[in-house]
Amino acid sequence: MDSDDRDRAPEQVPVGPPTGATAAADPDARTRAGRRAADDSGTDSAATFGRGEGDRDTRFFGQPWALAHVFGVEMWERFSFYGMQGILLIYLYYSTTQGGLGLPETVAAGIVGAYGGSVYLSTILGAWIADRILGSERVLFYSAIVIMAGHIALALLPGFLGVTVGLILVALGSGGLKANATSVVGTLYTADDPRRDAGFSLFYLGINLGAFFGPLLTGLLQTTMGFHWGFGLAAVGMALGLIQYSFGRKQLPPEASIVPNPLPRHRYGLFAGIAAAGLGLIVVLLLVGVITVDNLSLVVIVVTLGATIAYFFVILSSRRITSTERSRVWGFLPLFITSVAFWSLYQQQFTVVTIYSDQKLNRDIFGWTMPVSWVQSINPIFIIILSGVFATLWLKLGTRQPSTPVKFAIGTMIMGVAFLLFLPFAGGGPNSTPLLALVGILFVFTVAELLVSPVGLSVTTKLAPELFHTQMVALFFLSVALGTSISGWLAQFFDVNNEGPYFAILGALAIVVGIGLLVSVKPVLALMKGVK
Asked: PROSITE patterns, alphabetically (predicted)?
């Protein structure tokens, strides 16, 4: 495959907030063929070889039958994840008489933002465990069990106990599954299998189907039977995916279970001690009041920022990378900053936009009131529709398509415009914003997303030094974690009775960040050393 093809291929596999994986569980990820396969898939999860049987197996829409098992567990995981998240925020701030916990809206939004950021932080842990201890397939399986346990806790445990236990388990489990599901899919194909792109596209279709149906059904149960029934349905969905995967996991190739860089047995105690010390520190900080429910999103921001600085320092200070690779890492830095700005606005779908939808959106449809969570199903519809449009566009443009920094800049500016589109409806009373208006705004959200999310995951694999491939993809996930946490922190400045300044300032800032990257395209491309 020539370089132009490699540049174009990743755009054929769009994702929501990134669900791709790292190459942590892939022993060949640092080979030349592995890099080519990772580029082709738009992830850092490819590079497996010798699937003779898989090449002949076309039972799942022309793809290997084993894909159906990973497709299923990922679809049901997204069903449960977005289904739960669709009702989580309103559960936290609805009054006790409405079945909620009665938290202030800003505190509730901060918790949701911190939780979302923790999910992406957990991908790093999930990748490390796969790389050093268990392998991707086993981490995926155990993560699904942890996720199901988290949803059960939300459904059955009362009050804040259920929220605390449930969100911790779901965050850890989702991080582990996110970090390994795509990697397992990569093991089903040889690097030059012509079905790869179609297989990954089918896989991501499952992701968006789950993201579409989850909020619809959990929201319907929440409005008719109560919040805990909605959380219970999320648990049932994850259980269905787990049962299917339990029967099908034996059909996956051996490569899916490889531990590429096993941790020596004599070091197990050391890392167990580090983990215990970390947990102990968190408990102490909770007990002395340093970490509170009010500052949770800020704590996750600080932790993520610290991890980001550490990752950049380790990579850039390494004597084992070439001057070209070091330059490319510096070229990634402006993309990282822009990505943080983008996700800090985009992820407000689950914080500020949810509050807005609850209080300002006219959800009346012929006398029936649409559940708040249904708003979360709008974006997956547009992703399914527009992903093919963008894939066709990039293929048509070929070498004339915009470079990655330009796509990032335009995507972030469009995200800013989406926030400005709230301004014509500012100052309105309850139920004053037409539903079609919010549908249009979320359409703009999706256009911006498709210019940043798949492009970012793809370019990260191309800019990564050979010795730090996994760490660079982890950095991209850290940009999502940081942006998601910031989206929760920013909610404290949102006033539903005076929302104009909030949307105007953040929209303008995003446009300024985009313009800043746009005018810096030439020096950024110079640092990227031939990667476009």
From this structure: MFS, PTR2_2
CA geometry: angle 366, 369, 373, nearest 5 deg? 135
- For residue 379 the two structure tokens come to 């974006």
Q: Give CA–CA dist 249/261, Å, rounded.
A: 22
Which tens digits make up the pLDDT trace of 42-78?
A: 333 333 334 445 456 677 777 788 888 888 898 999 9
- Please, are residues 83 and 376 in contact by the beta-carbon 8 Å criterion? no
Q: Which of 446, 172, 459, 486 is nearest to 308 (CA)?
A: 486
Determine phi and psi for 63, rounding to 5 degrees: -110, 165
For 497, the 3-state DSSP assignment is coil
- Write down the pLDDT at residue 34: 39
Percentage of the chain beyond pLDDT 70 is 88
In tens, the pLDDT along 445-458 reads 999 998 998 888 77
C-alpha span between 142 and 124 (Å, rounded)? 16
Q: Pinpoint the alpha helices (H) of 398-532.
A: 404-420, 435-463, 469-490, 500-519, 521-528
Least confidently predicted of 29-38, 307-316, 345-354, 417-426:
29-38
DSSP helix/strand/coil, 427: coil
The residue whose two tokens read 């755009």 is 11
Q: 3-state DSSP helix/strand/coil percent for the chain, to nearest 5?
A: 75, 0, 20
pLDDT band at 197 (very low <50, low <70, confident <90, very high): low
User: Nearest 5°: phi and psi at 187?
Assistant: -75, -10
Q: Which residue's structure tokens are 């996750």?
A: 300
**Which residue in 418, 413, 411 sits closest to 437, CA to CA?**
418
Q: Average pLDDT in the 336-344 region?
A: 96
Burial of 306 (0-12, 13-18, 19+ CB in 10 A): exposed
Q: Are strands 368-369 and 364-365 parallel, antiparallel or unpaired?
A: antiparallel
Report the alpha-carbon distance of residue 242 to residue 72 in Å, rounded: 9
Comparing CA positions, the residue from 112, 245, 228 lying closest to residue 177 is 245
Cα dist from 222 to 159, 161, 218, 243, 278, whole Å: 16, 19, 6, 25, 36
What span, in angstroms and rounded, lies between the C-alpha atoms of 227 and 244? Answer: 26
Amino acid letter at 93? Y
Strand partners for 63 = 60
Q: Which two tokens stand for residue 198?
A: 């179609």
Per-residue pLDDT, averaged over 21-39, amounts to 39
The pLDDT tens digits for 512-521 are: 999 999 999 9
- Torsion angle defined by CA atoms of residues 53, 210, 446 and 346, in that order, rounded to the nearest 10 degrees: -110
The dihedral over CA atoms of 504, 300, 351, 425, expressed in degrees to the nearest 10, equals: 0
Q: What is the pLDDT of residue 393?
A: 84
Q: Apex CA 110: angle with CA 108 and CA 113, to 5°?
A: 115
**Cα dist from 374 to 16, 208, 210, 445, whole Å:** 17, 14, 13, 16
